[in-house]
Amino acid sequence: MENFQTPFNSNTTTANEALKSLGSLFKSEKKKLQEIRTGVKTDHETFQTSISSQISKLQDELTKESNLKDSLSLKSEEVKELSVKLNTS
């Protein structure tokens, strides 16, 4: 039985060291994945903020354009009325 005890102890020690090494490797990989996740989350939030800002600018420009169109339409009607008055006089 003693013949097997020494190799068993050696194998157990080697296996335990390998498991500790593997555990450290997993912890390291988990940390790297968390850093990547944080980076992606930050990039996503920055992108969303940028898109929201651009949409707001476009909405503002559209409102201005719509107001300008309405103003031009009113001026056009005024010009038509003046033209009719001039032609009938």
Counting DSSP H or I runs of 4 or more residues, the number of helices is 1
Q: Biggest sheet, open or closed, and with what strands and sense?
A: none
Give the SSE order as H and E letters. Answer: H
* Residues in β-strands, percent: under 5%
Number of strand elements: 0
Helical coverage, percent range: over 70%
| Low-pLDDT stretches | none
Distance between the termini: 129 Å
Gyration radius (Cα, Å) is 38 Å
Structural class: mainly alpha
- What average pLDDT do the residues reach? 93
The backbone outline, from C-alpha atoms, is rod-shaped
Task: Tell me what the structure shows.
The chain has 89 residues and is mainly alpha-helical. The chain is built from one helix and no strands. The longest helix has 87 residues. The mean pLDDT is 93.
List its traits:
single chain; 89 residues; mainly alpha
Short note summarizing the structure:
The chain is mainly alpha-helical and 89 residues long. The chain has one helix at 2-88.
Secondary-structure map:
Elements lengths: L1 H87 L1
